[in-house]
Structures are given as C-alpha cells and as structure tokens.
Amino acid sequence: MKVLSLNFLTCAVKTCKTQSDSYPLHPKDAELVQDDIELNEAFLINLLPRIDWKALSTTATELGFPALPSTPPTPEDLRADAKTLRDLHNLLLETQMVEGKLVCASCGHEYAVREGIANFLLPSHLV
Amino acid sequence: MSYSAGSHVTPVTEGKGEPSSMTTNAKSNSIRDAAAQSPEAYEDEHVHSVYESIAGHFSSTRYKPWPFIASFLRERVAAGSVGLDVGCGNGKYLGVREGGDVHMIGSDRSPSLVGIARGRGFDVAVADGLALPFRPGCADFVLCIAVIHHLSTRERRVDALRKLLACVRGDGQVLVYVWALEQSSSRRGWDVDSEQDQLVPWVMKANQNKKDKESGGNEGVDTTYERFYHLYREGELEDDMRAAGGRVLESGYERDNWWVIGGHSEKS
Lengths: 127, 268
Ligand SMILES: [Zn+2]
Hints:
Chain A: Its main location: cytoplasm. Chain A: One of its GO terms (molecular function) is protein heterodimerization activity. The complex is a heterodimer of chains A (about 130) and B (about 270). Chain A is an alpha+beta fold and about 130 residues long. Chain A is built from five helices and four strands. Helices cover about 30% and strands about 20% of the residues of chain A. Chain B has a domain at about 65-180 and about 235-265: Vaccinia Virus protein VP39 (Rossmann fold, 3-Layer(aba) Sandwich), CATH 3.40.50.150. In chain B, helix 1 (about 25-35) packs across helix 2 (about 40-60) and helix 2 runs parallel beside helix 4 (about 110-120). The radius of gyration of chain B is 19 Å and the shape is globular. Mean pLDDT of chain B is about 85; it is low at about 1-25. The chains are: A alpha+beta (about 130), B alpha/beta (about 270).
C-alpha cells in the first residue's frame, strides 16, 4: 500500500468518522519497500490538491522521512525544483508499507497490514 | 415496494433438489424472512463465505470490463483524479485506466479476492462496504460494481449508497451497477414477474474444486454454492440513490444490469 493511499484512509469505526484525531492513521512497526516507478510530473501536480498535506507530513515523519515543509509546494515549485518533485514522487508513489499496523488515535483500534494489504474488517463490538 | 406474491414460476435453479411442493413464493418469502432476522449473519453465509470459497474460480471468469465502465474510466475521469473501487473483487477495473495519471484504491469484503488483486500490483484493502475506511470527500469518483445487490435489506442497500456518496467530493461521481430483474434474454431468464430476492447457485465443477482445494471445495465432486441477490427493478436503483440523499446524474441498462451515476444533491 503506497504512502499516497494512506492519505485517503481513515478509521472504519462509524463514531470515529467525526473525530478529527481518527485521521490520519498512525503507522506502527511499519516495514517499507521501495519500488522504481517512472516519474510523472503532470500527475503529481494534478494530485496535489487532492492530498491532505498536514496528514501527509505526519505520516512522512512517522515513517522516518525528513520533515515536509509546512505548506504544500505549488505547481510552480514542483516544475522549478527537480529535487522536491523527485522526493515527493518517492514518498507518495515509490514507498509502500507492506507490514505493520495502522492505528486510530481516536478509538485505539489497530488495523493489520500484511503483504501490503490493510485489513479494515471490524470485530463485532466495534461495528 | 408493492409487488405481491404472484402465481408465476421463476426459473428452477440448478440441481438443488428442493421439494417440488415448495412454491416459488414460499421460497422467496423464506429468503426474505431469513435475511430480515439477521441480515449480517445471512450475508455472511450467503455472500461472504461463498466468495471466499469460490474466489479463485470466480476470479478466473471475471476479466472483461463492462464496456460502459471502461469508457467511464478512460474518457470521463480527469488526469490526477483519485478513484475508489468498492467491491473491487480481483481488481479488474483498477488497471483499466492506463498511463499512470489516475490513482485508484480498491476494497473488498473478501480477503481472497483482495489477495488476487494485490498480486496484480494494485493498492487494495479488505473492508466492509458498510464500514468503509476512506476519508470523507476524498475521492473524485467511486465505482461499486455488482455489490449492492448482495445486501439483503433495502435499508442496508440504501445505507451502502449513502456510504459511497460520503467518499466523494462535492462534484464527485458514484457509478453503481446492480443485477437487473429484467433480463429475459439471459440464461437465467428472470423478468418483471420474477421474485426479486433470489439465491443464485454457483456451481464449482469437480476439476475446479481440485484447483481450489485450499479454499474448501471437495475434490472430485461438483459443489454448489448459493449467493444472495436482490434483483433490481427498473427505476429502483435511482430511487435508492435518492433515498440515500444523492442525486441521479445519469442512469441506464447494460447487459442485464441497471447502472446509475450518482452525486451529491445540489443543496449539500
Ligand atoms: Zn477509530
């Protein structure tokens, strides 16, 4: 599961949907792998407005990446700065979490990630 | 829904050896009654566990995208979009859009099918359609193909649509396909007079059982699994979309299926 996808995932528990601390989920004991994917500048620029930057910053730090700037780069920044573009591409698209857990800070539930697949099925008492 | 017990005969499902004295109506009512008692338990038995058992065989028969869905993905989705496929099965729609300019995430209730999709390199998660793990309003579009008809009460079907709508942004689109009641030319032969709640057999041939031995089939004999379906009547999917608080942007019929594209209503 790519870091990009983690930005779109939240806790599956109904009562957590309105709790701000249920997002983003926090990686725990995360095992990462790096893929080699062709960089697509236009795609990254188009993606930017869909990304929750604050959540991405949290995730990046928790996964051991250098801190992201406090505001997202503009399209102009990305076009002008090859390194920023490259780093963002690497974080979002080339980095996968393949093992570990995703933890909700609101309810404390831990979702297992195995072989790249996160499992969001809930035990009956949380449904 | 007002359609009442009629005196018609629905197609006999293959080889289940049910008592001939049992009428179609009694059977369908028993389906409805059993489902109503505990929809979750009913769907566990007649949907989830079936897909776990037939995943490999099922997946091998599901590789051709429906033409309208393929054209939706190729022609109507803007570059840079993020899309979800709820009930993605083996992931057959996750790779339809080529060129790497759209990001898709799939989810399915069946861990075996999700495993197959993952093996094809897609980003997928195991999740229940009524407890989705997606950030509200995060997606440009959501696909939900051949899923909603497996929910055994109208309340749950409408709730599932409500949860799909919650995933898309203000101008996002939710494309839903369900099996139609009106399919007189299909081999099942159902039509407007047929019962809408059906148990539909999936026959796993002996040789398939061999291949799928790990998933619970018996080697050497055919095994029949029954999946629950609610067959949608013309107009019903649109009604359910509106009951879920959505707006019907477009709808149609394609090869034994009703489809709808829903979005948020203008007020919201
Ligand atoms: Zn939670």
